[in-house]
Amino acid sequence: MSMGFLVEETAPIVWRGLMVMSAIEKLLRQVDWGELDYLVIDMPPGTGDVQLSISQNIPISGAVIVSTPQDIALVDARRGAEMFQKVNVPVLGLIQNMNVFRCPKCSHETHIFGEEGARRLAETLGFDVLGR
């Protein structure tokens, strides 16, 4: 299920407050998920209405923070991790996305977006790196 199914294909999702809560309620309570062991919710980066509404209105076992290794992305990742801790959601660890580019011709690896940013952030915050 996706928020994309609730709006027109090219329409931006410019929602705040009650509109966000209404959409989250529909996704969580009006979709027949069947019997689940886990429900993974992929949220946008940040600490806005979506993250707060979900963390305050449904039981959450934990959060996984995903970030690219760039400094600006790591700032958002840190804020997200600290927000989840503040609302008593355990942070399970960090994943570094876009870790390396491997040339399809020669297999040379290049760290286009930086190197080891998520590892350094995880060490600073006391979390594990779950993957790259």
Automatic annotation (TrEMBL):
Species annotation: Hymenochirus boettgeri (Congo dwarf clawed frog)
SUPFAM superfamilies assigned: P-loop containing nucleoside triphosphate hydrolases (SSF52540)
Gene3D superfamilies attached to this UniProt entry: P-loop containing nucleotide triphosphate hydrolases
Transmembrane portions of the chain: none
Example GO BP: iron-sulfur cluster assembly
Upper classification of the organism: Eukaryota, Metazoa, Chordata, Craniata, Vertebrata
Signal peptide: none
PANTHER family: IRON-SULFUR PROTEIN NUBPL
Gene Ontology molecular function: 4 iron, 4 sulfur cluster binding; ATP binding; ATP-dependent FeS chaperone activity; metal ion binding
Protein name: Iron-sulfur protein NUBPL
GO CC annotations on file: mitochondrion
Family the UniProt entry places it in: Belongs to the Mrp/NBP35 ATP-binding proteins family.
Keywords annotated in UniProt: 4Fe-4S, ATP-binding, Iron, Iron-sulfur, Metal-binding, Nucleotide-binding
Superkingdom of the source species: Eukaryota
